[in-house]
Design goal:
Strand content of chain A: 15-25%
Shape of chain A: elongated
Oligomer: heterodimer
Number of helices of chain B: 3
Distance between the termini of chain A: 75 Å
Bound molecules: zinc ion
Number of strands of chain A: 17
Strand content of chain B: 5-15%
Radius of gyration of chain A: 30 Å
Structural class of chain B: alpha+beta
Strand order of the largest sheet of chain A: 3-7-8-11-1-12-13-14-15
Helix content of chain B: 25-40%
Radius of gyration of chain B: 22 Å
Number of strands of chain B: 3
Largest sheet of chain B: 2 strands, antiparallel
Largest sheet of chain A: 9 strands, mixed
Shape of chain B: flat
Chain lengths: ~475, ~100
């Protein structure tokens, strides 16, 4: 039986406001534990939250950039549950009236465009941070808590279950991050936890329109992990069903080291959060004028960037999407052009050689030793025929591994193309003398024999000859000999 | 529709309250009285009316995004039932309950 994977994704993003969402505490990352706290975010009795306007506007901005309806009247609700990272024993969130709803985003996978629905975008508060690592700070009986993070504004972005493959899920996340970075509402650092995602995965027989039981996957700390977790989970579910079992509705934990999902807890009984309207906050009325003002602050988004790459640089649709959908690739591309790289050549390398090298070494493009300036220098030398395409690949591999200037590397390794005609002519004569058979063939009228000789000349010069010039000089030399016969 | 013993126990579990069977029966009766009192509201026609989400008529009370000094670390940890160095100490939770 062939199965179809159905994926929905929830993303939490910390907003980069200066102060927390309901109190004036600072939000700086990396401060000493419990130094950015106050009675409000510590959940002390008798305190009142006051809403941060900027957090609301950042949430609106994200919702608008994701094509959501930004609603007129909204409110906040209490989500009640007990957990030590939540000092009030409830989280202020939004239940039935999110700030944004019914949006969408287009992604492109394998050259095919696909629209993914955004069910909702809502504003809530971040929880404190449990510190588990190492025996000196935790034991079997206790955990330590830092409340600096508690109360940082958080938006939750919930997609519709519209994705059908791990590739689509990754494309969705890459583009979502790109959009959020473009509008400047978050730094989206997965390694610092300011962007976190959970994937809901189920499978169903190909062609079916009903949904299977889904599992929710947590602890996914990178886009690569999202991809692997979804691939693993859909295969695991298929195995369960094919052996006559039943997929249970449960939460599973992604173990990145073992590359597998493990059971965490059952979801068969839905949580009862006893949501009710937050009495400490008055409702929020978002009128048209406010929405328009926020809309005006939205800069160029990936879709517009894509159109610009096609129009201004003549890139193809596909490579243009690949680059513009990813903020890091876009930054690299634009810096490369600033440094003088020819756009099409740069895009070719970025989606070819560079992408392959990044993939193979597991490096992020933002920390590539072959940066945009190095790439511009390398491509400049190719464009001016100072090095051959083959040499460029060798130099690239060196620069990618060790860093440094491509020009200096070419000079140090003596890889520059032989542009001096005399030097190359000498080498051509040597090749002809060393290969009397093919040379005689050419003189006798077998013009194809020249190809062999060009190959020999390229070999003799270790690829440093310009093939066109090599061809020309060999012909001149042989034609000269023919006349003298 | 009255509140039974099971409903009381479920609410107690959600609210992390502990009491015996005798108290459960007592609370069931008391909760019933309260619900009976507000049940009067069901007689009012609310068809097509938007739900009131707040008793105040105010909307859009907000502050600017300006950080202010909070508590010092010592002040923050002063009333903690247990602490370790710069942290609050809490019982370790093995069952990872829902976060965020
Ligand atoms: Zn605070």
């Amino acid at each position: 039986m062939s199965w179809e994977t159905v994926i929905g994704i929830e993303v939490h993003v910390e907003l980069s406001t200066e102060s927390k969402v309901f109190c004036g505490c600072k939000t700086r990352f990396g401060a000493r534990p419990n130094t950015q706290v106050c009675p409000v975010c510590l959940g002390m009795p008798g305190v009142l939250p006051v809403l941060n306007r900027k957090a609301v506007e950042y949430c609106m901005k994200a919702a608008l950039a994701l094509n959501c309806e930004v609603s007129g009247r909204t409110k906040f609700d209490r989500k009640n549950y007990f957990y030590p990272d939540l000092p009030k024993a409830y989280q202020i969130s939004q239940y039935d009236m999110p700030i944004g709803k019914n949006g969408w985003m287009d992604v492109e996978v394998d050259g095919k465009a696909k629209r993914i629905g955004i069910r909702r975008v809502h504003l809530e508060e971040e929880t404190g941070k449990l510190v588990h690592a190492g025996d000196d700070i935790t034991s079997a009986e206790s955990s330590m808590i830092d409340f600096n993070r508690c109360g940082i504004p958080l938006i939750e972005i919930v997609s519709e279950a519209d994705m059908r493959s791990a590739d689509e899920a990754r494309a969705y996340l890459v583009k979502l991050r790109s959009i959020l970075l473009a509008i400047g509402v978050s730094d989206c650092k997965m390694e610092e936890g300011s962007m976190r995602c959970e994937a809901n995965v189920s499978i169903r027989p190909e062609g079916s329109t009903e949904f299977g039981a889904l599992t929710e996957m947590k602890n996914i700390a990178s886009f690569k992990a999202v991809y692997k977790a979804i691939e693993f989970e859909s295969k695991r579910q298929a195995k369960v069903l094919e052996s006559g079992g039943r997929v249970r509705r449960e939460t599973r934990h992604w173990d990145d080291l073992k590359s597998e999902t493990v059971f965490m807890r059952s979801k068969e009984q839905a949580h009862d959060y006893r949501y009710f309207p937050e009495p400490d906050l008055v409702p929020l009325e978002i009128d048209r004028a406010w929405t328009d003002r926020v809309k005006d602050t939205i800069p160029e988004l990936p879709d517009q960037r894509k159109a610009r790459y096609v129009a201004d640089y003549g890139l193809g649709q596909r490579e243009s999407s690949l680059i513009s959908d990813d903020m890091d690739l876009s930054t690299y591309f634009e810096k490369g052009i600033e440094a003088g790289a020819e756009a099409k050549a740069l895009a070719n390398w970025m989606t070819g050689e560079l992408a392959a090298a990044l993939n193979a070494s597991g490096t992020e493009i933002s920390s590539s030793k072959a940066g945009p300036a190095e790439m511009a220098e390398l491509l400049g030398m190719v464009a001016k025929n100072e090095i051959s395409g083959k040499t460029a690949k060798e130099v690239f591999a060196e620069v990618f591994a060790k860093g440094g200037s491509p020009r200096k590397m070419v000079e140090a390794m003596g890889l520059g193309q032989i542009s001096g005609e005399e030097e190359l002519r000498k080498a051509a004569v040597a090749v002809i003398d060393a290969n009397p058979g093919p040379s005689a063939d050419y003189i006798a009228g077998k013009e194809n024999a020249i190809m062999f000789l060009v190959g020999q000349l390229m070999k003799a010069t270790k690829g440093r000859a310009n093939p066109k010039m090599a061809n020309q000089l060999l012909k001149q030399e042989l034609d000269g000999r023919k006349k003298n016969l | 529709m009255g509140i039974g013993r099971d409903e009381v126990m479920r609410i107690a579990e959600l609210a992390r309250l502990e009491f015996g069977e005798e108290d459960a029966a007592k609370y069931a009766k008391e909760l019933d009285l309260i619900l009976g009192y507000v049940a009067k509201l069901e007689e009012v026609g609310t068809e097509g009316k938007e739900a009131l989400t707040h008793a105040q008529e105010l909307v859009n009370v907000m502050r600017d995004d300006v950080p202010v000094e909070g508590l010092s670390q010592e002040q923050a940890l002063m009333n903690a039932p247990a602490r370790k160095g710069e942290f609050f100490l809490v019982p370790r939770i093995m069952d990872n309950s829902d976060e965020d």
